[in-house]
């Protein structure tokens, strides 16, 4: 079967392509950048598309020549600009499906979302619901798969949940009673392949795991899967979280629409899903095992440890600049500078110039554009300070408070952040599912 996979480079779409190839099908790789897709899957046909750009039904009819089925795994969780949800979730796919109906005899598997129904409140769910309603009217063998939370170690939402699960204190709105029914990406892909094998399609189907559970239990289950024994959950006041979400403070589960979707819940009967894939969906306690668990744990810890270390390092430089300029006795600072050979106006300029430099380096770490340069400058400055102190004030190496020896772990931390916190984005990164 020749299957057009739209969103082939995304989290779900890429797994669908791999399974189609393993099963002997011929996937056509649809995405914004065909070069990236060809680099990952050499030799397979590609198709450039972007639902945000207008494409007529007639144009889609031409593009669908020779295609037996269409799988759409395209979606965004947040808008970058107005009308993006409508373009990506509704207007673009509508033209595609109208072309499928015009050609006739073509199977469609559309990946929607659980909650895209009459009670949908968020723009994310409403636009998916409207497209689902349109697709269900077409005279084609269609399947609308509506997943709950989809787990995969490299998925953006999964990485957020893994990061929360590994944090020393798991902070959740109201302690995390929100009901979820997470499903593994492999099971979602199995549902797609199962739907493609049904000549008449499967209609609308909830794609969920085998058990509905509170969000807190889900995170604690992931925590155990990564080798942690215990976990503590803090009940963040819901009113405070809602205020923060309205102000745009805090991403992830604190995002306004995401919070509303979590509060509504994401559970359904798993029976139809189990019958389609021929087995019980994988349970959350089996999402991670062996090598995957170790890699997920490392990535999750780095997810919160790097920002924490970055802000801590920035605070150190900013505090040093403030203390040096305004709080530490000026006479004592000038006396130390005199021992290095700086006196008078030169010493005063060096004192306040160094304070300004410390402040600049601290704030430079917090701004992504200057972060890499700030790390390099910090390393050079620490080496310079250490050399001067070693020559002019060598007794500070033996000081019980370790004012110089503490530079060693700070230097090591800065090198680590320089390497881990300034990595370029992965080639071909996409916002598609």
TrEMBL record:
<feature type="transmembrane region" description="Helical">
    <location>
        <begin position="340"/>
        <end position="363"/>
    </location>
</feature>
<dbReference type="Pfam" id="PF13781">
    <property type="entry name" value="DoxX_3"/>
</dbReference>
<feature type="domain" description="NAD(P)-binding">
    <location>
        <begin position="7"/>
        <end position="151"/>
    </location>
</feature>
<keyword id="KW-0812">Transmembrane</keyword>
<dbReference type="InterPro" id="IPR025695">
    <property type="entry name" value="DoxX-like"/>
</dbReference>
<protein>
    <submittedName>
        <fullName>SDR family oxidoreductase</fullName>
    </submittedName>
</protein>
<dbReference type="InterPro" id="IPR016040">
    <property type="entry name" value="NAD(P)-bd_dom"/>
</dbReference>
<keyword id="KW-0472">Membrane</keyword>
<feature type="transmembrane region" description="Helical">
    <location>
        <begin position="308"/>
        <end position="328"/>
    </location>
</feature>
<dbReference type="InterPro" id="IPR051207">
    <property type="entry name" value="ComplexI_NDUFA9_subunit"/>
</dbReference>
<keyword id="KW-1133">Transmembrane helix</keyword>
<dbReference type="InterPro" id="IPR036291">
    <property type="entry name" value="NAD(P)-bd_dom_sf"/>
</dbReference>
<dbReference type="Pfam" id="PF13460">
    <property type="entry name" value="NAD_binding_10"/>
</dbReference>
<feature type="transmembrane region" description="Helical">
    <location>
        <begin position="375"/>
        <end position="398"/>
    </location>
</feature>
